[in-house]
Specification:
This protein folds into 2 domains: 125 residues, Rossmann fold (3-Layer(aba) Sandwich); 164 residues, Dihydrodipicolinate Reductase, domain 2. It is of the alpha/beta class and 346 residues long. The chain is built from 12 helices and 13 strands. Helix 1 packs across helix 12 and helix 8 runs parallel beside helix 10. Helices cover 31% and strands 19% of the residues.
Amino acid sequence: MIKAGIIGSTGYAGAELVRLLLNHPDAEIVWFGSRTYADQPYAEVYGNFFELVDARCLDDNLEELAAAADVVFTATPQGYCASKMSEELLSRTKVIDLSADFRIKDAARYEKWYGIHHPSPEFLGEAVYGLPERNREKLKGARLVANPGCFPTCSILAIAPMLKGGFIDPQSVIIDAKSGTTGAGRGAKVANLYCEVNETVKAYGVTTHRHTPEIEDQLGEAAEEELLVQFTPHLIPMERGILVTAYASLKAGVTEEEIREVYEETYRDEPFVRVLPKGKVPETRWVKGSNYADVAFMTDARTGRVIMMGAIDNIGKGAAGQAVQNMNLLFGSDETAGLKSIPMPF
């Protein structure tokens, strides 16, 4: 059995990790970490685990945790994992970090976008970006995994095939994205109160959202050139889900048949990416509660552009589900283990 520890187990992504790992055939949770709820029964924080989890929340003693766990999930704010990272830690356990601390390879760029000092840049080169659809073989031998952000995951899966095929102008990409409110975390913030988010939609982080450099880096790798994207996220009144609608200028002569062939070739053997048939568009309800990503595209002959679309559950494939998928690759388990739940549309 894979012994797993979770730091930040009482956040939304942490609680989803608990739910998934409890149903995992090869894993057991040995550490329910939560500084806020230390020594409280976990099932009192989340009542859905009543009579399913009898453990109490523990603190974030990484030294003790590393001795008890084969893998540590850090579902924590930016800066925490990087502040604790050391060769000694990685020699004792594997780490899957759900924050942005190791996603951006340039420490100065990370510091510019996140506004905090990076205390362990020496591990940036080693960290593997945890998108299995792009880095599966690298993940199998990793000690440190940078679990991707939710917006980048959906954006990359939807757009990368177009760059891979050389079908679009890489510098023309515009991404419009929408997220459920769990994406803002469980912390108490006035802007996230029910009355503030219900019956309204708003853009946020316009031109400044911190997932922008992550998206640019990963799409730049797919395009084999540096690129800039226009990325605007929106908060919508639902709990879970990401919907990405992206636009780019098509190169002359590209046909819909060529595009579909590349999408289907790219994702043919991927267990969690579904390429929708012609005329169908992704909806968040068809991936809710799952590790699936639905992608689709449409071309517009009138404007000469392509519309690339994707939907995921932001705390599923966008966070905890992807983290478990990465764990499976690290330890040689079936990649789909613990992740076979069918999406729940209501």
